[in-house]
Fold this sequence. Notes:
Layout: E1 58-59, E2 70-74, E3 81-82, H1 84-98, H2 108-121, H3 130-142, H4 157-174, H5 179-196, H6 198-203, E4 206-207, H7 211-217, E5 221-225, H8 230-239, E6 243-244, E7 250-251, H9 258-267, E8 275-280, H10 283-290, E9 299-303, H11 310-317, E10 322-325, H12 327-334
Parallel strand pairs: 1-6, 2-5, 2-8, 5-7, 8-9, 9-10
Antiparallel strand pairs: 3-4
Amino acid sequence: MAAVRVLGTAPGRLERVVGALPAAGSLGCRSTLPVGRVRPYFVRSVPPPGGAGRRGVRAVRPPRAAMGGDLFALDFDGVLCDSCGESSLSAVKAAKVRWPWVFEQVDSAMEEWIVEQMYTLRPVVETGYENLLLVRLLVEIQIPSVRKSSVAEGLSIQEILDNWLKLKPTLMDEWQEDRESLVDLFGRVRDDWIENDLSGWIAANRFYPGTADALKLSSSETYIVTTKQSRFAEALLKELAGIDFPSERVYGLGTGPKVKVLQQLQQMPQHQGLTLRFIEDRLATLKNVIKEPALDKWNLYLVTWGYNIPKEREEAQGISRIQLVDLPDFSKKLK
């Protein structure tokens, strides 16, 4: 992987990423390559930038009339799209802007190690800005002289996976950070990458096999409910999957918690009489839905790919409200 570098320390002055990206696992965001080795990142052919009218871009089919059909609420990252390569590289860029002094001793080999660990750690990330916290934590684990947190010394990757919900508020407090500033920075870094190197940004993502085609061919009422900022999900749908997905059907970061979005969707007059289906890759999110009696009508699905681990899938099998779904079944359900 080519080094990711910042020109100066001013926000927005970012150098483009060049070179090969580390591969994700066969389906989820996990690289099996040893540190120091990279291979070309698999992507679908990327159409040239442009508007909705360019060749190859397809609109989603008109939905069925709301009489006995299905309503699908789909998570984006980890269900439709594997964005781990892009989010990890963007997080390194953004962390360099936020904490330039932390990265003074970080060379290209360590950057490669950081991105490699981010593949393993991706299942704990609920919202994109958390990637920045993980990147800085990995640096503090490796370089004691920049350490400002009380938890970094001797911390293992597995311990981060097991304890992230406790570690996150500790890091935010000890680093004196606030969520909104990190969210804003992460978005601006992505915007800068898109503006200066759209094809490179697109190529750092991929859709899971069959998911884009399933979405194109679906005749069901379909919405995307994600913690990703809507503009990035829409850009990937158009530029990478070739789908003109209606903006009003994308509920991204800032539209409220997913449980609230699901309540809104089920209350819409046009959705009365539909079978409600919510497909996620995070078990914790599905558990939050189960806690809300008002959402009892939703059929809940945990995908067997994406950003979850075998332990979570095993746990889900013991929860009556949750069904496991694999890629072939996903494509069949969405049609």
